[in-house]
Amino acid sequence: MSNLEPRPPARDMGGLAGTTAGPALDLLAGKEVLLGESTRVRRLLPTLGRRMVGAWVFVDHYGPDDITSSPGMQVPPHPHTGLQTVSWLLHGEVHHRDSLGSDVRFRPGELALMTAGHGIAHSEQSPATHPRFLHGAQLWVALPEGDREVAPHFEHHAQLPGFSSDGLSATVLMGSFGGVTSPGRAYTPLVGVDLDLADGADVEVPLEPDFEHGLLTSSGSVSVDGVPLEPGAMLYLGTGRRTLRVRAGAASRLLLLGGEPFEERLVMWWNFVGRSGEEIAEYAAQWNAESRRFGTVVGYDGDRLEAPPLPPVALRPRGRVR
């Protein structure tokens, strides 16, 4: 998924200065962004107050949207570097094409994991004949220095591990949780879990104390350590937690994201993750010049996106929080 802001700000991210030394309950203020021709998303990372949770650097939550009379998601070919995209659906279907030749349709409960590494291009769109509703999350994970130039690759996992207990069904997208491990390849210690809670469920969710965590409410109504969360809200939980008390006031879906605090400083602008403004500018120039670095997406009926103009000011190191 692309960042389609016409003037995307450049962000210097990473480092430990903004990591809490213990538990927190900070509600993150997201903002609404238009994605493609007709899909509106709630951007929860990066946002006011926080730029990262572990290596997770980007969280968009969209839907549920009735797309019966619309084309649904339509994101033209665009590039990425230095990150992984983690695509997760609760309703709908998305057609992924990329410059490696991947041509995959993924559905709810399936993991679409694209590692951009040195550089890749892809498109995402709802098929011409698609389900009525579209609802899901698009997530990005920053790659560490030693792996950020890895050869790009795409993984589609139609079945993911999980478990059920006391009104909770957990599906592990990335990392390990509750004794089970996702087949998706991760490059830093992290976790991503879909939590499906039955109406009235009251559970203690196990956490890794060395990780910082965030919790996104995809649907339903829950309270987290007594803090109510409505759909589309994300709560930053800090570090040092071994468990988390979650109560569901209705059938609910949550996304638990976490990881070791990301120590490296990085720059994220548009769809690129790099280590300097100069590096980002070179990525943008190469993409607009149709460099072989990113390849070509075959099969998409339409023009590719151009990189927007770079910000007129130099980047200022700001760390993990504003």
Sheet with most strands: 14 strands, antiparallel
Low-confidence stretches: 316-322
Q: Outline, from the CA principal axes?
A: globular
Question: Topology as H/E string?
Answer: EEEEEEEEEEEEEEEEEEEEEEEEEH
Report the structural category: mainly beta
User: Looking at CATH, which topology would you report?
Assistant: Jelly Rolls
The CATH architecture designation is Sandwich
State the separation between the terminal residues, measured CA to CA. 25 Å
Strand content: over 45%
How many helices does DSSP assign?
1
Total discrete domains: 1
Summarize the structure.
With 322 residues, this protein is mainly beta.
Blueprint of the fold:
Layout (H helix, E strand, L loop, with lengths): L10 E4 L8 E13 L3 E10 L7 E11 L7 E7 L2 E9 L2 E5 L4 E4 L4 E5 L4 E6 L7 E10 L10 E5 L4 E4 L2 E10 L2 E2 L8 E8 L4 E5 L5 E8 L2 E3 L2 E3 L4 E5 L4 E6 L3 E8 L5 E5 L2 E3 L2 H12 L34
Antiparallel strand pairs: 1-24, 2-3, 2-21, 3-4, 4-11, 5-10, 6-9, 6-11, 7-8, 7-10, 9-12, 13-14, 14-15, 14-16, 16-23, 17-22, 18-21, 18-23, 19-20, 19-22, 24-25
